[in-house]
Write a structure and sequence with these properties.
The chain has 215 residues and is an alpha/beta fold. It has one domain (33-210): 3-Layer(aba) Sandwich (Glutaredoxin). 47% of the residues lie in helices and 17% in strands. Strands 1, 2, 3, 4, 5, 6 and 7 form a seven-stranded mixed β-sheet that branches. The longest helix has 32 residues, at 183-214. The radius of gyration is 21 Å and the shape is globular. The model is unreliable at 16-28 (pLDDT under 50).
Amino acid sequence: MKKFWVLFSLFILPLVFYIFLSKGIYKYSNLPILTESVIDVKTLDNAVNISFSNHLSIVCFLGNDSSTGKGSLFNLNQTIYKRYYQKPYFQIIAILPEGSQALYKEAIEELSAFTNISKWHFIYSNATTIKALFDSFKTPFNLNENLYSENAYIIDMDLRLRGRKDDEDTKDGKLYGYNMKSISILKNKMKDDIAIIYYQLKKTAEKEQRRKREI
């Protein structure tokens, strides 16, 4: 009996753990696509040299009420941007109404005082174009009267909205966006989901390298 438990602990238990871990990685290694072919941000006014293509973009619509928008801006910066801005492809794009430059000037200056904001992009555009971009995400949400959304969105390199289809906190399980007012959602959901995309990118790169070696 003693030999059995020794063998179990040395061989069988690690194998069971490996299988469990592998299934867990498989389950969480694919972040669902919720919307195909969103409008590229480069179509917006003043979006010079900015594109969703070939980038992993976090997109937020901050509106022209800076008292609300600034809180979302700083939450996103502290929880998501600082964690990922040194990663390849990463960028955060803030969509703002034309004419709100002065409202956000101080906030952006404050942000740059303690953060390298080279991967932050602030795009100002008219209401019609902003709504068209937002509507192309095809979420169940709407911008409010100030062109603000409380959610941040993940757009991948192929202009697809990514999110969850099995989220325990939504009615149909679909999580289209991540509430910027909630540090816990940004930290426990959005951060993890971005990590999944980077895991996918790593595995794809490794697969491509193996393919090249085999040729």
